[in-house]
Sequence to fold (691 residues):
Amino acid sequence: MGTSTNSMKVLVLCALVAAAAAWPSFVDDLSFQSDVVASSTAHKQQDINHLLDKIYEDTKYPDLQEIAKNFNPLGDTSMYNDQGAAAEVLMKELNDHRLLEQHHWYSLFNARQREEALMLFAVLNQCKVWYCFRNNAAYFREQMNEGEFVYALYVGVIHSKLGDGIVLPPLYEITPHMFTNSEVIDKAYSAKMTQKAGTFNVSFTGTKKNKEQRVAYFGEDIGMNIHHVTWHMDFPFWWQDSYGYHLDRKGELFFWVHHQLTARFDFERLSNWLDPVDELHWDRIIREGFAPLTSYKYGGEFPVRPDNIHFEDVDGVAHVHDMEITENRIYEAIDHGYITATDGHTIDIRQPKGIELLGDIIESSMYSPNAQYYGSLHNTAHVMLGRQGDPHGKFNLPPGVMEHFETATRDPSFFRLHKYMDNIFKKHTDSFSPYTHDDLEFAGMAVDGVAIDGELITFFDEFQYSLINAVDSGESIEDVEINARVHRLNHKEFTYKITVSNSIGSDHLATFRIFLCPIEDNNGITLTLDKERWLCIELDKFFQKVPSGTHTIHRSSKDSSVTVPDMPSFHSLKEQADDAVNGGHDLDLSAYERSCGIPDRMLLPKSKPEGMEFNLFVAVTDGDKDTEGHNGDHDHGGTHAQCGVHGEAYPDNRPLGYPLERRIPDERVFDGVPNIKHVVVKIVHHPEHHD
Ligand SMILES: [Cu+2]
Fold:
C-alpha cells in the first residue's frame, strides 16, 4: 500500500499536469465560473485525496501549495452563498491569532475547538462551486489545527451538495493513531527510520485476565469505529437547519443506532459466555477500568482509568450531582408525558414523534427544545467518563477515548453508558400501550415460511490497512510500505428465503423487517418475548413488491440496508481518482459513498464454535402505508435502516424498531398475526477459518 519514489514522482507529475490542464490560473483569474471543467467527480476525489494526504505535514502537492500561498478566501466573495460572511469570521480569528495551533490534539467535545472546526465547515458549506470549496480547504489546511481541519473537511463533504459522489477515505488510514495501538505505531516509526517495509499485527487491548477482552474485537473493530464516527458526522449534535436542510428523525435515529450498538454488544457477550452489559450509574462505582494503549499523534497517551472508581466531579465540565438532576428531569418528562420548552409551553411526547424529541434532549442536539433545562446528558457523560483519569486536571492529560466518536466504543464504559441511556428510552417506549392484533395485521398478506439458503457461519478474517500517514516524512527518508494487520469478525454470505402469500388480489408493496433475537440468556434461561424483543438486532429492512399468490422472496445478506461494504483503501481511492483524471474517464464509487452503517462483515454475531440458536424474526407490513409521502425509489441507497437517506426524509413511516419497540405483555397477540413469523436458526463460529 505504500508508494515508491518513482510512482510518487509520477503521481506528483500527473497531479501537476492534471492541475495545469483542468484548473484556471487562480492567481490572475478569480472568475471561479471557469471551474466547471474541473468539477468532475474524479477531480474532486483527487483533490480530497491530496488534501488528506499526510495531514500533519505541509502539503506536498504543488497545486495545493500554490493555493495555500496565494488564495485569498475573501478575494471574491461572490463564490459564497453568504457573500463571504462565514469566511470573514474565520479570517478574523486567523488574523487575530486565536485559532488552535497545529500539532495539538483536537476533540469535538472541546467547545472552542468545535467552534473553530465549525467555522471552517461553515465556509466550505457556503461555497457555490468546487473551486471555492477546494481552495478554502487547501488554504486553511495549512493554517488550522489538523484535527479541526479533517473534521471540517469530512462534515463539509458529507453535507455540502458539492461533496456528492466523493468517497471519504477511511479515517483509520488518515489519522491512524486514533485506531491503532501505540506498540504498532512505534513499529511503524522504526520501519520508516530503518527503511524496512513491514506489516504489524494489532492485538486487541488487554489480556485474558480481563473478561472484557473477550469482546474487545467488537468495540475495537475499525469498521465499527468508522460506523460510529460517521453516524455522528451524518447526524451531528451541533447541526442547525440553517446549514441547509433538516436531519429527519435525528433524535429517534440517535436512540435506534445506539440501542442497536448496545444490543449487538450484548449478542457478542452472549457469544462469549458473558452477562449482558450492566448500566452505568452516577452513584455507583465504575467497575470496568480501561487502558487504551493508544497515543495521540500530538498530545501524549490516551488516559487510563483504573477499575472500581467512584464518579468524580470534573472541573469545568459538570458535578456528578448535575448529571443526576439532568437525569431526573428527563425521567420526569417521560412520566409526565411531556417536555417543557424554553418558553414554558409543553410538548406532548406520548405520541409517535415523542421519541425523536426525547433523543434530541438526551443527546442533546441543537434540536433540543430546552437544552437549558434538560442539559446534555449524553454529551456531558462522554466527557465525564473521558476525564475520570484526571478529573481535576492535575496531570494535564489529554481527552480520554470517550471524548472522540472514533475511539469511544473501545472503552467498555461506552456500552455501560449507552445501556443506561437505552433504559431511559425504554421507560418512554414502555409508556405506550402495546400493539393490538389489528395494529399489527396486514390483511391479505401472510408469511408462510422463513428459511436460510446457505449456512450461518462466522469467522475472523485478516485485514491490512496502511500506516503511512502515521509516520512523518523527511526530505531524505523515503516512504516504505507500512501496514497494520487486524483480525475482524466476518461471516459467510447467505440468503433469506421468505415465502409470502398475497391474497389482496393485486401486487402490493411490502416492507420486510428482519431481526435476530436471542432465545436464552447467558444462564440458559428462556427469555419471554417481552424480554427478548428489546435485545433483538436489526438484520435488514427493505421494501419489495409482492405479486398476487404465493411467492418466495430471495434477499441476500449483502444487500442489507443495515450494513455497508468494506471501504476502498486510501491507496486505492488515490489510484482510481488518478487513473480517471489522467485517462479522462468517469469515476463511479457510488457503492462506497456512505460509510455510515454496520460493516457488512459484522451483520451476524460471532456465536460459539458449537453453534447457538437464535430466533429469526420476520414482520411483513404494508409498504404503501409505510412509504406514503416518499418517492417511489424503494432502495434508498441501501443504507437507510440506521443511517437514513442523505438529505431526505427517512423512508419508513413506522417507528424505528417496529413492531418490537413496544412492550409485549401477551405473546399470543404476535402469534396470532399471519404476517409475522419467527423461526429458529443456528449460527456457528469457525475459529480456525481465516479468510
Ligand atoms: Cu454515539
Notes: Confidence is low (pLDDT under 50) at residues 1-31, 33-38. Residues 399 and 587 are 39 Å apart (CA to CA).
